[in-house]
Amino acid sequence: MILAQGVAEQEQSWSMSILIVALAALLLCTLAVLLLSPDGLRRTQRLQAEVSLTQHELVSLKARNQALSGEVNNLKHGLEAAEERARSDLGLIAPNESFYQIVNAR
Fold first, then answer.
1. Per-residue pLDDT for 3 more than 70?
2. What's the Cα-to-Cα distance from 48 to each of 4, 5, 26, rounded to whole Å?
3. What was the pLDDT predicted at 43?
4. How far apart, in whole angstroms, are the C-alpha atoms of residue 31 and residue 36?
5. 64, 70 contact by CB (below 8 A)
6. pLDDT averaged over the chain?
7. CA–CA dist 42, 78 (Å, integer)
8. Mean pLDDT of 11-27
9. Which residues of 17-48 are buried (b: 16+ CB within 10 A; e: fewer)?
10. 97 to each of 10, 81, 94, 100, 101, how far by Cα in Å?
11. How far apart are CA 16 and CA 21, in angstroms?
């Protein structure tokens, strides 16, 4: 009976050792794929950098959209903004104004 118990413990020890070795081999294979393959860690880092860059662009574009939205709102509801835009872009001169153009002599 004692001999049978010792054999059972030895078989259990061997099976546990085999399991540990198999798990260690699986872990090493997983790490090798993660670190060495093109779709592994390098790609993940590259994609994270692209996400960061895209988020910075998004913040910039949101600020630009807010500025344009404010300008559109001013043009819709305020005559001063529309008149200023017409003066700067189209050269508007009001009927009661005089226009002077200064030309540099060369």
1. no
2. 58, 56, 27
3. 82
4. 8
5. no
6. 84
7. 54
8. 89
9. eeeeeeeeeeeeeeeeeeeeeeeeeeeeeeee
10. 107, 18, 5, 10, 13
11. 9
Among candidate residues 34, 54, 53, the one with its CA nearest the CA of residue 44: 34
Residue-by-residue DSSP string for the chain: -HHHHHHHHHHHHHHHHHHHHHHHHHHHHHHHHHHHSTTSHHHHHHHHHHHHHHHHHHHHHHHHHHHHHHHHHHHHH-HHHHHHHIIIII----TT----------
User: How many residues would you count in the chain?
Assistant: 106
Give the Å distances, CA to CA, from 41 to 2, 31, 48, 95, 104. Answer: 53, 10, 10, 69, 63
Cα distances (Å, whole numbers) of residue 29 to 18, 21, 26: 16, 12, 5
Q: What is the pTM of this model?
A: 0.46
Name residue, tokens 């090493």.
28
